[in-house]
Prior knowledge:
This protein is of the alpha+beta class. It folds into two domains: 3-171, Glucose Permease (Domain IIA) (Distorted Sandwich), CATH 2.70.70; 202-288, no CATH class. Helix content is 23%, strand content 19%. It is built from seven helices and ten strands. Strands 1, 2, 3, 4, 5, 6, 7, 8, 9 and 10 form a ten-stranded antiparallel β-sheet that branches. Helix 4 packs across helix 5 (222-232).
Amino acid sequence: MSPLEGLGRRSLFKMAGVAGVAVAGSSILTTQTAAAATISSPVEVGSRYTSGFRTSDRPTHAGSDYAPKVAGTTGRPIYAIADGQVVRAQWNALAYHSGIAVIVYHSALGRYSYYGHLASYKVSVGQNVRAGQHIAVMGTTGNSTGIHLHLGIFGGSLSSPSFVDPHAWLKARGVTPGVTAPVSSSLKWPYADLPILGYHTTDSHNAWVKLMYDIGYRNSSLSVNLQSWLKAKGYYTGYIDGQFGSMSVKALQSLLRDRGFYGGYIDGVRGEMTIKAEIRFLNDQRQYY
């Protein structure tokens, strides 16, 4: 699907292209201080742990790999494992590592985290990030055979890194990537998924408002914007009157069905199945931000 629900408009997100180093202080705090830091999973629940650290068949693999729940799925978010500062965000950000990557320095931990083979990133060099912040999109750039995150954790320096096993390091701090949810409860759509509920919440309503606004529909009435959008896509043939009745709902159901999000009847009833399909659609749109 093309950016922002396939309307062919420009993507809101422009990948930062700034390279450079802005390394924070290098002092290593005590184990007690480091343990107190908030640690997040770098990937969503359901992500698969596909390759370990320096295994017998990959003795030089200085990280852990995590793939999306369904192989080949695009647009999956990557989260910072802890508070820190972005020190690199570029192609080939670290020696002997290929593809697009982000490196964050965590002063409270005295370590760096490396996020590799990205499709794109949402941060810039020098930016401070929080644990669980959505910083990048999972990809397969560089020396990669499929969509996944290569996570590295290292001490030392950018020019002389000393890697540790990321999966074991995170597990020792109570985080199992793919099992533990990212620390992202304070983040709103499009920076975090909406829960798949059978009813609309303030957050899901606001997500519709933002999506419509961002693709150019800026009436004060969300219903008018949805009708205008559905009409432009060829699904709604009625008046743009802001009355989101059966005819409007049937148009929405038809669009969601054609996009693969709705499998029910086109009956004009905006019930639980339709609303869940709407939320799945909205979550899918996150990849374009």
